Amino acid sequence: MSTVQISAADVNKLRQQTGAGMMDCKKALIEANGDFEAAVDYLRKKGAKVAASRQDRDSNEGVVIAKATTDGTRGVVVELNCETDFVAKNADFVALANKFTDLAIENNPATLEELLALEIDGQKVSDIIIENTGKIGEKIGISKFESVTGEKVIPYIHGNYRLGVLVALNQAGAGVEEAGKDVAMQIAAMSPVALDKGDVDATTIERETEIAKDQIRAEGKPEEMVEKIAAGKLNKFYKDNTLLNQEFVKDSSKDVRKFLNDVSKDLTVVAFKRIQLGA
């Protein structure tokens, strides 16, 4: 055991440097014989051990952050998870999520793996997550990362960081940003599965068609009518679940496609992303 005297000022200095608890900092300095760099390494290793011991824990709480570049042509959305709502509401945790999102905005990673490999002050995001697991005492991690590009990208955060949306439009200019915000709120509320009819994956179409046919047969309709009625039900599915064909929530007399075209001729959505916490 070290005989080096550890002062309260030393402990506080390490605490300010690392954000770890007072007792953890004192123990780290004792183990490191007062060497600050070794103490920081000790705390990081402790964080790694805490992270490893909590791998089987659920981390369904957290925050979702959506942001766009200053020129509005690219946006990212990041979900940072933790175990409890108490930690999710902590200002430092929200700040950490914003820091990771800003890093993604600056460096334009293509995947979550690339984001985790980026560095802040010489430290990889993946290592920062491990370190903060040790500080916080909860399993934390980035579970989702998405990005979009367009002439104008609108980010939207709903429900105290519980849902994030990105909308990429094919035009910029007067009225477009406000329209994009309306569409982002539409996406948050109505959760479309795809942009347009042609964007729905084949598996979903097949599933919806079979469900429709089973319902029609259960109603006792003749077999020769099944295909025609099923096609009608599939069109109703497209209207309810594809963004451009959805009834516009602010004006039920038009769909989203017409709403956008009324704002500016040929204005449309080219891509969108919707991330809901824990979903």
TrEMBL record:
Residues 75-278 form the Translation elongation factor EFTs/EF1B dimerisation domain. Pfam families: EF_TS (PF00889). Keywords: Cytoplasm, Elongation factor, Protein biosynthesis. It comes from the Bacteria. Residues 84-87 are annotated as: Involved in Mg(2+) ion dislocation from EF-Tu. PROSITE patterns: EF_TS_1 (PS01126), EF_TS_2 (PS01127). GO terms for cellular component: cytoplasm. GO terms for molecular function: translation elongation factor activity. Its main location: cytoplasm. It is found in: Cytoplasm. NCBIfam families: tsf. Associates with the EF-Tu.GDP complex and induces the exchange of GDP to GTP. It remains bound to the aminoacyl-tRNA.EF-Tu.GTP complex up to the GTP hydrolysis stage on the ribosome. Belongs to the EF-Ts family. This is Elongation factor Ts. It comes from Pedobacter nyackensis. The gene is tsf.
